[in-house]
Structures are given as structure tokens and as C-alpha cells.
Design goal:
Elements lengths: L2 H23 L3 H4 L3 H9 L3 H26 L7 H18 L6 H10 L3 H29 L7 H33 L1 H11 L5 H17 L6 H29 L1 H4 L3 H14 L3 E2 L3 E2 H13 L4 H30 L3 H19 L1
Antiparallel strand pairs: 1-2
């Protein structure tokens, strides 16, 4: 199956899931009596000062991501912070426009600009994902266990009960993930040899691919042995996700009413639900992100449907439009286009495959 067909199938599946969620919401009396004028009043009445602070916070998150990549890459190469920042903006702009296939733009662009092997950049990208998952689960657990929540509906109570159970499972999973990352970095050669032996039934080409990937991933984990780099990575991750939560909180404050009274930890829980929704995205439109945020606000925090929908829409605008706007400016500055960026990512991915053969 070619990549284009896979992409369309993924988009179609995501769109169907989002449509089914909205279809089921129609059974809720509150959603059947949805007032569009209240939705518009909620968004148009947002306080500009809080939104401007949130806007500044959005740009700071990309700078923090660039700083974290600087720590990740330091054992491999001392990269330029500007290149890393531009890579973050262009990469996330590509994701907003074309969905998950745009993920390769960030590592591809930085690999090209800094002359770093694409395999090493993919290892850094995986390490970033591990740090983000750990940070999100910690925030989720803190919100779940320290933020008083009293859903008003049976469905909300059931969802909260499931989330508590899921939180315990996620905590265990994160513990194992951290332990696995540390052990793999400290015993990379031995664990690589053992893993290759375990999968020795695979064809030679696949084994060489697997071996190269594991070695590159071990190289990317070099930051774990360097206490300075590890501390910088952890601190930048903690600040990044605290700032992401604060952006949600500022958007809620700008809308006022029940949303404006939500505490900071409630924003953390909403952020977690919205992040889960990012797995189902329609390029240029979003979908899963807004649905996750709206369901968290209505079902867990008892926010009425209209302001919750307004918050979901405004959050998506705040998280995507500033990035896309700066991304277009940087594309012009770099003399690039999104098509060229995609070509760079594909070229670097192909180079990584040739390295492994």
C-alpha cells in the first residue's frame, strides 16, 4: 500500500471517529439545545490581554523545544539554536497542515542544516516523545489526584473512574519506560546484541536496519549519561509542559464565566485530554484536539456546551495559527516551500535507509 493511500485511509478513519463522537453527543439534552449565538458571544467576548499572554507563551514553547533539542544533540553535535528553533516552527506548521506525515519535517530539516545523520535525528525525535509522554502523564496524575472534580452526569462519573484506573496503569508504564531507557543507555551494546539475537529469524536486511536503528537510538540517549545534559532536558521539559498548561489556563481566563474560574490543574487535565485527541487529526482543521478539550470541559468540569466549544475552538486557533503565521514568514526567509520541506524530509529519510543497508 503506497503512502498516499495510507494517508487518505488514516484521514478517513479519523474523520469517521470524530463524526461518530459528535453524532453520539446529539443524544445529550444539553447538546440538542445548543445555542450558536452563545458560542459566538463566548469567543467574541474573550479578553485580549490574557490572549496576548497566551500568544507569547505559545512562541516560548517552540523556543523551549529548540533548547531541549540542543541538549539532546549536544553529545552528537553542538547545533545552532536558531536552526533548531526554525526547525520546530516549520515542523509543527507541516503537522498542522498535512497531519502526522509532517512529523519528518523537523528531523529532516535539522539533519540537512546541521549535517547530522537522519538516523541520529530520528533517535532524538523518539527521545523527545519519551520525555513528552512522561511529562504529560505526571501532569495528568497531578491533576487527577490533587484537583477536586465532581462530574454532574453519570457519564462524567464513569469517565472519571476510567481515567483514575488509566492513570494508575500509565504511571506503571512510565516507570517501566524510564527504567528501560536508562538500562538501554547504560547497557546499549549488550541489549542491542540480545535484541538482535532474539529477532535473528528476520531477513539480513531487516536485521541490519534494526541494528543501525538501535545503535542510533543508543547514541541519542547519550544525554542520560551526561548529568548536565540530562538536567537541562528534564528542566526544559518541565517548564515546557507547565507553560503549555498555563496557555490553556490563560485562554480559559480570557473567556471568563465558569471557564475563568477553573484552576490551573483543571487546565492540565484538559490539556491531557486534548493531547490524546491529537492522535485523530484532520489536516488544516484539527478535530480530535478540540473534541478532547470539549469533552473534558463538559463531562468532567461541568462547563456548558457553548463556552466549552468556544474554548476548544479558541485553543486550536491559539496553538496553530501563530505557528503557521511565523512558519510562512520563515519559509520566505529561508527561500523554501512546504513542498520543498517535504522533499528534504524524504531525501533525509532515504539517506537514513541507505546508511542501514
Amino acid at each position: 500500500m503506497n503512502k498516499g493511500l495510507r494517508r487518505w485511509l488514516w484521514l478517513a478513519g479519523g474523520a469517521i471517529v470524530i463524526a461518530l463522537i459528535f453524532y453520539n453527543l446529539r443524544g445529550n439534552p444539553e447538546w440538542r439545545s445548543f445555542h450558536w449565538d452563545r458560542l459566538w458571544a463566548s469567543i467574541s467576548g474573550a479578553h485580549l490581554d490574557s490572549l496576548l499572554l497566551a500568544l507569547a507563551g505559545v512562541y516560548c514553547t517552540y523556543l523551549l523545544r529548540a533548547i531541549r533539542w540542543w541538549f539532546f544533540l549536544e553529545p552528537i553535535k553542538r547545533a545552532r539554536l536558531w536552526v533548531l528553533f526554525v526547525g520546530q516552527i516549520l515542523g509543527f506548521s507541516a503537522i498542522f497542515l498535512v497531519g502526522r506525515p509532517g512529523e519528518l519535517v523537523r528531523p529532516g530539516y535539522i539533519a540537512k542544516k546541521e549535517n547530522v545523520p537522519m538516523s541520529a535525528m530520528l533517535a532524538v525525535w523518539l527521545l523527545e516523545r519519551a520525555f513528552d509522554i512522561i511529562a504529560m502523564v505526571v501532569l495528568f496524575a497531578a491533576a487527577l489526584y490533587f484537583q477536586p472534580v465532581g462530574p454532574a452526569t453519570a457519564r462524567g462519573i464513569s469517565a472519571l473512574h476510567v481515567m483514575h484506573k488509566g492513570g494508575n496503569v500509565l504511571f506503571g508504564f512510565i516507570g517501566l519506560m524510564v527504567l528501560g531507557l536508562v538500562l538501554f543507555r547504560l547497557q546499549a551494546e549488550r541489549m542491542t546484541a540480545g535484541t538482535l539475537k532474539l529477532f535473528s529469524f528476520l531477513p539480513d536486511r531487516a536485521l541490519r536496519f534494526f541494528q543501525h536503528f538501535l545503535r542510533s537510538f543508543g547514541e541519542g540517549l547519550s544525554v542520560i549519561r551526561d548529568w548536565k545534559g540530562l538536567a537541562g532536558s528534564i528542566v526544559s521539559t518541565a517548564v515546557l509542559w507547565s507553560l503549555n498548561t498555563t496557555i490553556f489556563w490563560l485562554v480559559f481566563r480570557s473567556l471568563g464565566g465558569e471557564l475563568g474560574r477553573l484552576p490551573w490543574l483543571a487546565s492540565a487535565l484538559t490539556l491531557f485530554c486534548a493531547a490524546l485527541g491529537l492522535m485523530i487529526q484532520v489536516p488544516g482543521i484539527g478535530g480530535g484536539f478540540q473534541v478532547g478539550a470539549i469533552l473534558a470541559l463538559t463531562e468532567i468540569f461541568n462547563v456548558p456546551a457553548e463556552p466549552a466549544t468556544g474554548a476548544g475552538i479558541l485553543l486550536w486557533i491559539m496553538m496553530s495559527v501563530p505557528c503557521l503565521g511565523l512558519g510562512l514568514v520563515l519559509l520566505i526567509y529561508e527561500g523554501l516551500s512546504f513542498r520543498k520541506l517535504e522533499a528534504i524530509a524524504k531525501e533525509e529519510e532515504q539517506a537514513a535507509r541507505l546508511e542501514k543497508v
